[in-house]
Design goal:
The chain is mainly alpha-helical. It is built from 15 helices and no strands.
Length: 359
C-alpha cells in the first residue's frame, strides 16, 4: 500500500494523526520518568516498578512510530529485509515491555519477565530464516506463532488476575483502585489491536486503530497513576505444623477488632489486624479460610453492621442522616465500594433498604 503516494487531504490528516499517536506516548513516558509527584492522583503513590515498565512501553511505542515513518519515507517496500527487521524488532520490544507493564500491576508477588523474552526467541529465529529463505508458508507460521503467543499470554494473565484477586480479598478490606480488571482488559485489547495492525491493509481500519491507541495510552497512564503501592506482605508461615485454635482467634478478634471497633480504620490490612490482635498472619488467614470466609468480607460485614446500627439510631432520634458521611465513618474509602458490599450482604441496594426502613 503506497501511503506516501497519496496526496489527498485524507493522507495529510492521517499523517497528522500518526504524528500525534507518536508524540502522546513519548510525553506520557517523559511524565512517568521525570515527574516524581503524581499529577493525576495526588494522594496515590504508584509502584515505581510499574511506572518504569509503563514508561518503557510508551518509549518503544513512540520509537516505533518514528522508525516506521522513516521506513515508508525511504523505502516502503513491504517485501524487503528492512521491513521484516522492523517488524521483528516491533514484536519483540513491544511484547516484552507490554508484558512487563502488565505483570508489574500484580503486586501479590514479583513476577519475572524473562519467560516472555524466552517465548519470543522462536519468533526471532523463524524471522531470521524467513529473511534468508522467504516463503508464504514461513510468513503464515510467523503470524500464527505471534497469535498463539498472544493467546497464551492472555490465558496466563486471566489466571494471574484471578489469583491476584483472591490475594487482595484475603489481605485487604479496601479494594478501591487496587483491582486491575479494567486496566488488564484494556491492555490485552491493546495487544490484540497491535496484532491486527501488523496484519491490516485496509486504511479505514488503520485509522481506527490509531484513534483507539490514543485512548488506550490515556487509560493506561490513568491506571498506572491510580494504582497504589501496596505494602510488602511476608507470609509468616510456621516451619512446623501447628493446630489453629479457632476459638482463641475468634476471641481475640472480638476483643481487639469488634469491641475496639478497629474495623473502622481505613486501609486496614490483614497484616495490620494480625499485629493488633497479637497473632500470626498465617493463622489469621487460615482462620478465615476455615470459616469459608475472606478477610475482605469479614471486615466489610462489620462495617455494614456499624452503618446499619448508626443509621437506625440517627433515624430513630429524628436526626438528619448524611449517608455518604456515615459511609466514610463506617470505614469505607468510597461509596461505590460500600454500595457493592452492602448489596452483596443485604441482597438489596442501599437506596432500597433506606426506603424500606423509612416505611
Amino acid at each position: 500500500m503506497d501511503i506516501l503516494g497519496q496526496t489527498s487531504i485524507q493522507s495529510i490528516l492521517f499523517f497528522i494523526l500518526y504524528g500525534v499517536t507518536g508524540v502522546v506516548p513519548l510525553l506520557a513516558a517523559l511524565y512517568l520518568l521525570l515527574r516524581r509527584s503524581n499529577a493525576i492522583a495526588p494522594g496515590v503513590t504508584p509502584p515505581m516498578r510499574l511506572r518504569r515498565w509503563a514508561a518503557s512501553f510508551f518509549v518503544v511505542s513512540a520509537l516505533a512510530h518514528v522508525w516506521w515513518l522513516l521506513f515508508y519515507i525511504y523505502s516502503g517496500d513491504l517485501h524487503s529485509v528492512g521491513y521484516l527487521l522492523l517488524a521483528m524488532v516491533d514484536c519483540v520490544m513491544l511484547f516484552a515491555t507490554f508484558a512487563g507493564m502488565l505483570l508489574a500491576m500484580l503486586q501479590d508477588r514479583c513476577r519475572q519477565v524473562w519467560p516472555a523474552l524466552v517465548a519470543v526467541i522462536p519468533f526471532v529465529a523463524l524471522a531470521g530464516v524467513f529473511m534468508v529463505y522467504p516463503s508464504s508458508l514461513l510468513e503464515n507460521i510467523l503470524a500464527a506463532y505471534l497469535l498463539l503467543l498472544s493467546l497464551v499470554f492472555t490465558a496466563y494473565m486471566i489466571f494471574a488476575i484471578r489469583q491476584y484477586g483472591r490475594w487482595l480479598n484475603d489481605n485487604y478490606a479496601d479494594l478501591e483502585n487496587k483491582k486491575v480488571w479494567l486496566s488488564q482488559a484494556v491492555a490485552l485489547v491493546c495487544m490484540l489491536l497491535f496484532i491486527l495492525y501488523v496484519l491490516a491493509v485496509d486504511m479505514v481500519f488503520i485509522w481506527l486503530i490509531h484513534i483507539v491507541e490514543l485512548v488506550l495510552v490515556g487509560l493506561l497512564l490513568w491506571r498506572v497513576e491510580t494504582l497504589p503501592q501496596l505494602p510488602s506482605l511476608v507470609q509468616q508461615q510456621p516451619t512446623t505444623p501447628a493446630t489453629i485454635d479457632l476459638k482463641q482467634i475468634e476471641r481475640l478478634l472480638k476483643e481487639h477488632c469488634v469491641d475496639k471497633q478497629l474495623y473502622l480504620q481505613h486501609d486496614l490490612s490483614l497484616q495490620d489486624l494480625a499485629q493488633a490482635v497479637g497473632t500470626n498472619r498465617f493463622y489469621l488467614s487460615q482462620y478465615f479460610s476455615r470459616q469459608s470466609n475472606t478477610y475482605n468480607t469479614y471486615i466489610n460485614n462489620l462495617r455494614i453492621n456499624y452503618f446499619i446500627s448508626r443509621y437506625e439510631e440517627d433515624a430513630a432520634a429524628g436526626q438528619s442522616v448524611g449517608v455518604k458521611q456515615l459511609v466514610h465513618e463506617s470505614g469505607f474509602s468510597s461509596y461505590r465500594t460500600f454500595s457493592r458490599a452492602f448489596t452483596q450482604r443485604m441482597g438489596q441496594s442501599v437506596t432500597a433498604w433506606i426506603d424500606q426502613s423509612v416505611e
